[in-house]
From TrEMBL:
It comes from the Bacteria. One of its GO terms (molecular function) is enzyme regulator activity. It comes from Arenicella xantha. One of its GO terms (biological process) is regulation of nitrogen utilization. This is Uncharacterized protein. InterPro entries: N-reg_PII, N-reg_PII-like_a/b, N-reg_PII/ATP_PRibTrfase_C. It holds the Pfam family P-II.
Length: 101
C-alpha cells in the first residue's frame, strides 16, 4: 500500500550546500538526499570541473504543507542571488511514516 506525498527537487550551486542544509534542518525537513549535478541551462554549462562551477541536486520527500513552506523559504532567501531551480511533484511512497516530521 502506498501513500501520496510531495517530492521537492532543488538544483542549485554547490557553494551554498551548507547554508541550504542548515535551512532544511531549521524548518524540520525529515530528511533529504544531495547529489552532484552537471548540465546545461539558461546560465550555461555547469560542468562541475571546479567547485565554483559545481551544482547539486537536493531531493526532499515530505508532506505538502512542509513542501510549500520549503519552496517559499528557499525562493525568499536564495532566488535573487543564486542559481536555483525547484519543482514539486506528487509521488507515491511505501512507509510514509519515514517522511513526516
Amino acid at each position: 500500500m502506498t501513500s501520496r506525498i510531495k517530492l521537492v527537487t532543488v538544483f542549485t550551486e554547490a557553494a551554498i550546500e551548507s547554508s541550504l542544509v542548515h535551512e532544511l534542518d531549521g524548518i524540520g525537513v525529515p530528511g533529504y538526499t544531495i547529489t552532484n549535478a552537471r548540465g546545461k541551462g539558461s546560465g550555461g554549462v555547469r560542468s562541475g570541473a571546479w567547485e565554483a562551477n559545481a551544482n547539486i541536486r537536493v531531493e526532499i520527500l515530505c508532506a505538502e504543507a512542509l513542501a510549500e513552506l520549503l519552496i517559499s523559504r528557499l525562493q525568499e532567501r536564495y532566488y535573487e542571488h543564486y542559481s536555483m531551480v525547484m519543482y514539486m511533484s506528487d509521488v507515491d511512497v511505501l512507509r510514509p511514516e519515514k517522511f513526516s516530521s
